[in-house]
Amino acid sequence: MKRAVLSFLLLIIFVTALAGCGLFSGREPEEPVKEEGEEIVEVPVGEVDRALETALARGDRYIIVADETREQEVLVPGSPPTRLIWNRRVLRVSLPEELPMASYLAALEEELAAVGAEIRKKEEGGTDTALVVTLEVGIRPEVAGREVSLVTHGLTLLQGKAAPPEKGKLAIIIDDFGGGVAGTREMMELEIPLTFAVIPHRNSSQREAQEARERGYQVLLHMPMEPLNEKLPPGPGAITAGMAPEEIREAVAAALEEVPGAVGVNNHMGSKVTAREELMLPFLEAVGERGLFFIDSRTTNKSVAAALARQLAIPTAENRIFLDNERELESIKAQLRRAAELAREEGEVIAIGHVHPAMAQALQEFVPELEEQGVELVFASQLAR
């Protein structure tokens, strides 16, 4: 926005400088000399002035950048010849960016027509950040039985353009690949920029990670970690609260071998582990040493994982919203709409869903709407900082 304002101000200065060089005004006339038998007629343009000023007043908060008047003359042949003299006024006006230019010009033409004037010439130009409309306004008085065309006013309208809003960015991570569960095939065939998190040590972990990568999806290691709820087993190879630092490092290394091509890591469950700094430190060090990024799934609001990752200068981001706590199609689509809304409001959002048919169907139906909502779907790595 600052660049747009600066560009617009520079444009005004440039146009004003041109005016100082006389490029916008008529030539400086010599003092008219009356030839023998010649008539001199002064052409009144006050009504046109007032019509322009009335139209300008419709553009609230307009600023007159420059206002110059030059005497003009023209000799109309005849018997006797008639020399017409009038004051040509040149205005440069800055208009607010929210003013609809087309409506404003229509109102201007209406005001001019009411006093017998008209826009003779209109040129539009400018830059990406400013619009410039140059007008010539004239009248057609009748002199000695013939119509004469006179340009009485030059008007340059300057209007800053609002910079197009940046798109909100939404990264959707789909957890729980690796087990060949229902919905896997549908997800693989979506062909949209999704990030797939693969659980290690399952019967198809390596195969699904490889296929996802070949199809252009981004792949994460979905690292199992112990939850607070003891009734929810995190699965083989999980990091548990009783592990020593070296055991945690070894668990990370073994898991990564199961997920070829992983560029980052997020946690599977882990509400018991991610809340404890002494457990997350060796885990994150193992992640950072391999040049990977980390996404905190936020399975507990007591997680210290993202804050610690930032301290260690490991690119990181946090899940903002779960998409499928209720695995019904309409509920998931409602959560997707909420995620898109958050992306527009906050600029960048990560959302997490899981592999199952309803999730795949919801994505297939909803993702085309994202563009209309001003939201760009991106990979998780693009939001990890």
Topology of this structure?
Layout (H helix, E strand, L loop, with lengths): L1 H19 L18 E4 L3 H13 L4 E14 L5 E14 L5 H13 L3 E10 L3 E10 L2 E2 L2 E2 L2 E11 L7 E10 L6 H5 L6 E4 L6 H10 L3 E8 L19 H14 L5 E6 L7 H13 L3 E4 L8 H7 L4 E3 L2 E2 L6 H18 L1 E7 L2 H16 L2 E4 L7
Helix pairs in contact: 2-3, 6-7, 9-10
Protein described:
- This protein is of the alpha/beta class.
- The chain has 2 domains: 2-160, no CATH class; 168-383, TIM Barrel (Alpha-Beta Barrel).
- It has 10 helices and 17 strands.
- The strands form 3 sheets. Strands 9, 10, 11, 12, 13, 14, 15, 16 and 17 form a 9-stranded parallel sheet that branches.
Assign the CATH architecture of the largest domain: Alpha-Beta Barrel
Query: Share of helix among residues?
Result: 25-40%
Question: Strand pairing plus helix content: what structural class?
Answer: alpha/beta
Radius of gyration, in Å, reads 35 Å
From the N-terminal CA to the C-terminal CA, the straight-line distance is: 23 Å
Low-confidence stretches: 1-30
What's the order of the H and E elements?
HEHEEHEEEEEEHEHEHEHEHEEHEHE
- The share of residues in extended strands comes to 25-35%
In CATH, the homologous superfamily of the largest domain goes by the name Glycoside hydrolase/deacetylase
Strand count, sense and barrel status of the largest sheet are: 9 strands, parallel
CATH class of the largest domain: Alpha Beta
Query: And the CATH topology of the largest domain?
Result: TIM Barrel
Q: What's the helix count? A: 10
Bulk shape: rod-shaped
Total individual domains: 2
Overall strand count: 17
What is the mean pLDDT?
Answer: 89
